[in-house]
Design goal:
Strand order of the largest sheet: 2-1-6-5-4-3
Helix content: 25-40%
CATH architecture: Roll
CATH topology: Nuclear Transport Factor 2, Chain: A
Number of strands: 6
Structural class: alpha+beta
Radius of gyration: 14 Å
Number of helices: 4
Number of domains: 1
Length: 129
């Protein structure tokens, strides 16, 4: 049986194309995805199409080499936390950044129901200016 932690791990540890496919398969249709206040893509997006348009397509087009590298996964029942480091270079300024993050996922009926981002937004924002 695949654990919730394994599902989350699979969305980070794959090729870019596979990551999107795996995330879409793991999300509940009405999944809520919250990017932290102060982050360039701050807000709550509901459903895969909104999440992809509001977050992932922007990351893919606005950043060079953007990556979210997880170093620790923790699971407690229907909750999984992923801790790691973002890195990339903002195309418009040519400035690189690294920023620590935590992602908190909650599952319902075997699907990701919510994700909440905690991030050192200051490090990201410095690359934008």
């Amino acid at each position: 049986m695949v654990s919730n932690k394994d599902i989350i791990r699979a969305t980070y540890e794959a090729s870019p194309e596979q990551k999107g496919q795996r995330l879409q398969a793991a999300l509940a249709p009405d999944a809520s995805w919250t990017e932290a206040a102060g982050f360039p893509y701050a807000g709550t997006y509901v459903g895969f199409d909104a999440i992809a348009a509001g977050v992932f397509r922007r990351l893919a087009t606005e950043w060079e080499g953007y990556d979210a590298k997880v170093h620790t996964y923790l699971e407690d029942g229907d909750t999984v936390a992923a801790f790691g480091v973002y890195s990339g270079t903002y195309r418009a300024t040519g400035k690189a950044m690294t920023a620590t993050f935590a992602h908190l996922y909650r599952f319902k009926d075997g699907k990701i129901a919510t994700m909440e981002q905690i991030v050192d937004s200051g490090m990201v924002l410095r690359a934008l200016t």
